[in-house]
Amino acid sequence: GNRARSRESGAATSSAQPASRGPDPEPPVSGSVRTVPTGKRYCFVAVKGHGDVFVHFNNFRHGEGDPARGDEVSLVVSKEEDGREIGKRATITRRKKRSADELLEFMRHQLDAPADLAKDSA
């Protein structure tokens, strides 16, 4: 597959940290939402206590359908970049006007929920 990683400007290169997991020398700060520069409709998030997750937005691409603006966004929390092992689905409507922080908090609740997040791992 095409898994080419382009580096976005503004990558925080602080003191060299020991590679504790994976070949990722610059893991995102926990709780930070970042769009992936591949044009795909998801963002990459590190949620405390859950590690790295991918949040897929049905209409999230290069600023379109920004949940921080309260746009209607249908999101899926997944452990896989391509959307496999889908954990939770939810729709954030314009009426709710969730901020980015509220979105992250919502995602944490979704990940913490015991529902079929790991049903496919059995």
Automatic annotation (TrEMBL):
It comes from the Eukaryota. InterPro entries: NA-bd_OB-fold (IPR012340). Residues 1-36 are annotated as: Disordered. This is CSD domain-containing protein.
